[in-house]
Amino acid sequence: FGWLALTFVALATLQIVANLVNDYGDYKKGADDESERLGPPRVIAMGWITPEEIKKAIDAILRFEVVLAVPLCLRGGIGVLCLGLIGVAGAIWYTTGKRSLAYMGLGEVAVFLLFGPGSVLGTVLVQSGGNMDFTLLCRVILPSFIAGSLVSAILVVNNLRDIPSDRKVNKETLATRLGPGWTRMMHSLMILSPYVCLLCSSQRMLNPSWRVAWATFPFALGATWAVHAREGRALNACLGVTALLGTTFCLAPWCLTMTRRRT
């Protein structure tokens, strides 16, 4: 459990870095106009912190991430090191640089890969002490897809809400390219596809404990309906619902497994 907790802290720290970089990158590119913003306030645009201060904060948090990474890399091997470097690069490249991921419509792809296969594979490598065989790799595939899909759905809601403001500043997210209708369909696909995995997978591909996630299915239907029914600022509530759904879907099987082991 100790290694799992350390991995979780490292991933959460990387998420914080990504959020701060996103705030900084959008501000520098003029994508944060608080007078028209529909989402939660941004710290730089609100004047709560200066760009230089947020750069210092990012640097300090990255140093802390390095401290966390040392024991994880020693435990999980070169694979964990490579995944960590890719994760940091993805967080920084997300909205910074001339051709940043979010501005090329690759935000959802990046989030899916980093918080799906990247995070799950890295966690398994740490838990297994770097001993990854083909059987274990196969068992990682579906959980990776499920995690990546549910996390990406949060970003889809965010970008759906911001389509009008993003188009004004030429921020070509996937949502601005697809339009509201197809973006809502993409959200539904990302929310419902994990249940298709539950329905079609064998015990070799997915631990039976995952079946408890079916209890969240009514909430998934409610989340997809809400995204189709709401627009603009009203979609902010859907962000929380989608995040809660993904967390519950993934944590419920783990809690059931831990309970069975103790009994």
Write the layout of secondary structure elements.
Layout: H1 2-28, H2 51-76, H3 78-93, H4 107-127, H5 134-161, H6 163-168, H7 174-178, H8 180-200, H9 217-229, H10 236-262
Helix pairs in contact: 1-2, 1-3, 1-4, 2-3, 2-4, 3-4, 4-5, 5-8, 5-10, 8-9, 9-10
| Subunit organisation of the chains | single chain
Low confidence ranges: none
Q: What structural category arises from helix and sheet content?
A: mainly alpha
Q: Which value, in Å, is the CA radius of gyration?
A: 19 Å
Q: Please give the number of β-strands.
A: 0
Q: What global shape is seen?
A: globular
Percentage of residues in helical conformation = over 70%
Task: Name a few traits of the molecule.
single chain; 263 residues; mainly alpha; globular; 0% strand
Structure summarized in a few sentences:
Helix content is 72%, strand content 0%.
Would you give an account of this structure?
This protein has 263 residues and is mainly alpha-helical. 72% of the residues lie in helices and 0% in strands. The chain has 10 helices and no strands. The chain has helices at residues 2-28, 51-76, 78-93, 107-127, 134-161, 163-168, 174-178, 180-200, 217-229, 236-262. Helix 1 packs parallel to helix 3 and helix 5 (134-161) packs antiparallel against helix 10. The radius of gyration is 19 Å and the shape is globular. The model has no long low-confidence stretch (mean pLDDT 87).
